[in-house]
Design a protein that fits this description.
Elements: H1 5-21, E1 29-34, E2 40-44, E3 52-53, E4 59-65, E5 69-74, E6 78-84, E7 98-101
Antiparallel strand pairs: 1-2, 1-4, 3-7, 5-6, 5-7
């Protein structure tokens, strides 16, 4: 899946940190969501216990990682939350502005 330029820039540092941390500190697998204009976006092996802000509209999270995650309605992992176990998905009506993998 292709990432648009703003999202690629926002997640560029994330990709670098995931590469340097190694698999022990990552939620191995893929996190998928729907962004603007209904396009699907994904990140592989997101870092554990780090709040990630979404750079644009995000909805319909799908947790294909091996660890639980929580999506939040507001930035900085605040506001209403929705927890997804490994393999779970939420409907497209679940909008979120931030996400954390393997929360405590």
């Amino acid at each position: 899946m292709r990432l648009c330029r703003p999202l690629a820039v926002a997640l560029g540092g994330l990709a670098l940190s995931v590469l340097t941390m190694g698999p022990a500190a990552a939620a191995q697998g893929t996190f998928v969501w729907v962004g603007p204009k209904g396009k699907a976006y994904a990140i592989q092996n997101p870092p554990d216990r780090k709040c990630l802000g979404m750079a644009q509209e995000a909805r319909g999270p799908q947790n294909a990682t091996k660890k639980a995650l929580v999506v939040y309605a507001k930035p900085k992992c605040k506001g209403a939350s929705h927890r997804l176990a490994p393999g779970q998905s939420a409907s497209g009506s679940v909008h979120f502005a931030s996400v954390i993998f393997n929360p405590r």
